[in-house]
Amino acid sequence: MKDTSPARPGAPGAQRARHFAIAELVLQHGSVSIDELVEQTGVSLMTVYRDIATLEEAGLLQRHRGKVTALATGLHEASAMFRMEQQQGTKRAMAEVVARHITPRSSLLIDDSTSGVFVIRALRDRTPVTVVTNSLLAAQETAGDPDLNLFVLGGSYQGWANSMLGPTTLSNLADIDGDFCVISASGLAHGRCYHPYEDVVAVKRAMLDAARTKFLMLDHTKMTRRALHAFATLEEFDLVVVDLQTSAEAVEQLQEWGATVEVAAP
Question: Which of 51, 67, 122, 205 allows an S-S link to 95, with CB 3.0 to 4.6 Å?
Fold first, then answer.
């Protein structure tokens, strides 16, 4: 008989879920008090301190004078593996929308965003497709599928993103003439897409320039986040795919900024 009792706070599954919940809460608000985290998680103060220490070691949060601040908002980005675990159902639904527009025997440029990995998974009936990417996570996702041809862009490996960046990556992209491109953004403001890192922005911009049809995957959490570097306007994308949790007001705002929007239902 399957055990349906709640996981103990110290159990690995409970720890992992709590880490994601704490990180997401702090990332959304920028800064949260430790007392608020204790209240939200329902665990002891000591357990919350241990969770924060783990997230500090991962480079996602920092603690100072009773406040926990996000390092992945604005000037920093969460690690690739952490982002892979976030909002998987949402990313899956959005990826299905994008995949419906991909035609067989086409080329698909995918950036270092984890959303692109879910697009590859959704390409079941759209192959053969040539995937062009700087993301090693995306590259690994194509392994073992004979209908997915892979072209990995060269460059300087960045462990936090598990991807290749830099002048060599841009040089490779300058020689690419692609059919489709899937991009994500860390933040949005006044109809422009933003990301915290300049070298990532350069690759996103080069991918957009190299593709004929451009898709932006943008979940509701990005609508209120900010980052440093702009890389595109919403008008440049053929389709902006948002999740079901995106408010009607936010969708209307995107449309006012010139975007063609499709809401992904689960």
Answer: 122
